[in-house]
Amino acid sequence: MAWVYLLLAGLFEIGWAIGLKYTDGFSRLGPTVLTIVSMIISLGLLGLALKTLPLGTAYAIWTGVGTVGTVVLGIALLGESAQLLRLACIGLIVVGIAGLKLVSPE
């Protein structure tokens, strides 16, 4: 169950990272509230995952899922660069996430 918590925590991290862009410096109430709620849920789920998963592994995967998802949505929603080298670097993060999962004792 810890891996499910960790995956969901990563997805909510994507939500709050993208949400930050839409808060307009925390001047828009709706996006600000949704961003803060996403932050709380993400950290809460990470905390649940950390009950059984190693800290370094869980934190690296949490931030990795957040990073990859945020970059992908940045490209899809915000018109950010999709240069081949940038995508290759994101691919390396995905390989790192998979590697950490494979060698994790849980």
Automatic annotation (TrEMBL):
It is found in: Cell membrane. One of its GO terms (molecular function) is transmembrane transporter activity. It is a multi-pass membrane protein. It holds the Pfam family Multi_Drug_Res. GO terms for cellular component: plasma membrane. It comes from the Bacteria. One of its GO terms (biological process) is xenobiotic detoxification by transmembrane export across the plasma membrane. The chain crosses the membrane at residues 33-50, 57-78, 84-103. InterPro entries: EmrE-like (IPR037185), Small_drug/metabolite_transptr (IPR000390), Small_multidrug_res (IPR045324). Belongs to the drug/metabolite transporter (DMT) superfamily. Small multidrug resistance (SMR) (TC 2.A.7.1) family. Gdx/SugE subfamily. This is Guanidinium exporter. It comes from Phreatobacter stygius. The gene is sugE.
